[in-house]
Amino acid sequence: MSEFPEGFLWGGATAANQLEGGYQEGGRGLSIADRLPGGKDRFKIVSQPDFDWTIDTDKYTYPNHEGIDFYHHYKEDIALFAEMGFKCYRFSIAWSRIFPNGDETQPNEAGLKFYDDVIDECLANNIEPVITISHYELPLNLAKRYGGWKNRYLIEFYETFARTILTRYASKVKYWMTFNEINSAVHFPVMGQGLVLSTGANDKKNVFQAWHNQFVASAKAVKIAHELRDDIQVGCMILYATSYAYDSNPVNQLANLQHNQDFNFFCADVQVRGAYPTYTKRLLAEYNLTFDDLETTDGDLALLQQYPVDYIGFSYYMSSAVETTGSVTDTVAGNLMGGVKNPFLKASDWGWQIDPTGLRIALNELHDRYQKPLFVVENGLGAIDKPDKNFYVEDDYRIDYLKQHIEAMAGAIDDGVDLMGYTPWGCIDLVSASTGEMSKRYGFIYVDLDDQGHGTLARYPKKSFYWYQDVIKHNGLTKK
């Protein structure tokens, strides 16, 4: 048996915009996720110059509107999580459910009450809530009227939102994260920063300004949280893709080092260490920028230094390889990013390279760099599940994927890594963020809903449900 530390937080993860539904119920306002069309071309559509956040139901479907209707099924779903033995459940609070336009001064009480009920249901089932404050669901008004996170006004609006929910829930919720996959804006700033081409998504100055504003907002949230509760834990959350130089060519080795700095470490360096790293100068220079081009204040930098995050949450699905000479032409897809094909790895149904050893490497790299607790808050296999006539799915491929990654985590713990917990992504089937599909399934629980929105929404445990139940029961993998 590979046993994990006592108190290890086994659980699962979701996001409000991908499962809640009820998108116009309870006083909720619209978010940017409500404007993302369904289908594999959703990123191509929102990357067009004329994309203006308009809903066009004649041309597109919008599966995020319904999600899997967690809004009305949360008690049933949390009961299933409890049956698996979850110690924690990572979910997000929809900003527009609390502040419908994002810039109000008074919150929507109906939205707050909904999360009261969700949190209380978790606690009644001995499940620790782990809350992401902002998970790809910026209020639409803040994207349209203010141009997204490049606007410093959003620091103030986020602070109001964070103060409201932290004050309301801090006595019940110990674990928080400020921004989901904050570094994903390197490749696609629409999700995390609310930037599209018409509001300057292709101008890296806007992306770096948006990051700076988010760093400041994150520090403010840490400050608020620590003033409310001594033992509260507020983490950052990054997308981590272990990266390899394709070969021993020194050019590729250097490119890989810089890629790691720019993608895997930059946002964490600022939020964990409390200051911009020295390589910021080189990174900005690549886009003909200097730090003076950004709107910052001495107060901002002091705040970053005084209120770094308490732990590092990260998603890990895949690794990448860096090749800069042009000698390799085979490419693969990935989590908001792609790259050259690694010949040593297999890929998922969606072309994401499967690399459990890369997770052990990631855990060691992050722990060696920061010496802070780590939390794997997303990991999983998106696959086409084919249920039998009783809606039972024999998803041995998912079990195999998760088993290998849990073994990698056990190895990292043996290496001395301080690992807090593990919340596989999409613990119940939900709408995929990257493709807007239900058919790209991650869950331990099958939801009867297809890509066109047809189905009963009934929930059915998969084979992996019972396997994960056993993992949690034994606090690790058994050797059987």
UniProtKB/TrEMBL annotation:
GO terms for biological process: carbohydrate catabolic process. InterPro entries: GH (IPR017853), GH_1_N_CS (IPR033132), Glyco_hydro_1 (IPR001360), Glyco_hydro_1_AS (IPR018120). It comes from Lactiplantibacillus plantarum. The keyword Cell division does not apply. NCBIfam families: PRK09593.1. GO terms for cellular component: cytosol. The active site is at 378 (nucleophile). The gene is bglT. The lineage of its organism: Bacteria, Bacillati, Bacillota, Bacilli, Lactobacillales. It comes from the Bacteria. GO terms for molecular function: beta-glucosidase activity. This is Beta-glucosidase. Belongs to the glycosyl hydrolase 1 family.
